[in-house]
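User: I'm putting together notes for a lab meeting next week and I want to include a structural view of one of the chains we've been expressing. I don't have a solved structure, so I'd like a prediction I can at least talk through. The sequence is below, exactly as it appears in our construct file.
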Amino acid sequence: MPELDLQLPPGTRLVSLAERPDLDEGMGDHNVSVWPAFMLESPVSNAHWRRAMDRYPQFQLALLGEAGEILAAHNSAPLAWDGTDAGLPTGWEDQLVRSTTASPDEVPTALGALQIVVLPERRGAGYADLMLAAMRANARAHGLRAVMACVRPTWKARYPLTPIERYMTWTRGDGQPFDPWIRLHVRAGGRIVRPSPRSMTVTGTVAEWEAWTGMAFPESGAYIVPGGCEPVTIDRDADVGTYHDSNVWILHSLD
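Assistant: Thanks for the context. Below is the predicted structure for the 255-residue chain, given as structure tokens.
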């Protein structure tokens, strides 16, 4: 991994999967532990995630504690981008697909953020800011011009009935973005571009949705589910539930 100009907490170190491939399984366990069960059921993610990890190990970073434990981690993958807002992917899934299906003659120009996960008991210690700074620094060190992030707002699940188009514009009394995760990106220099109301799509049978959420769905309709940024739509006649995860595009220019 290139030398990154970052101030790390005492006793910690930052490593990539390219340097420490033995951390692959541990990083995977660390990452999936924070997500609602249904967020792990995207067919697109399940088809392309492993390919991104194998193809771009230098962009998968972990912050290790004194005993070698993973305190925080981030995943990202480079992709070609024309530099325009209109040229951004439609959502998180589209970004992942672009990274993993790029032809050899495509020259990556940006780094696509996939996720940042902090150990729950270490939240509030500034590790999320550090991992975003590491992502920006790593992108710059590899000659990329921007970091693009299809951000899943931290508090959107508290307001699942509010359209993402409105939620992303909410601000606090000091004028900063209302949502903590959006606010962190903006404070780091990110620019809010546009909403992505169908960033990820998850479908499943009614029984699968009941297992994923611990809820019952007695009739067809829209239901608010734990951890969902939007309601899930249940169609009992077709035996299918459909969920669209709503995100916000934020762009970090490194020029």
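A couple of points you could mention at the meeting. The two ends are 21 Å apart (CA to CA). DSSP finds seven helices and nine strands in the chain.

User: Perfect, that's what I needed.
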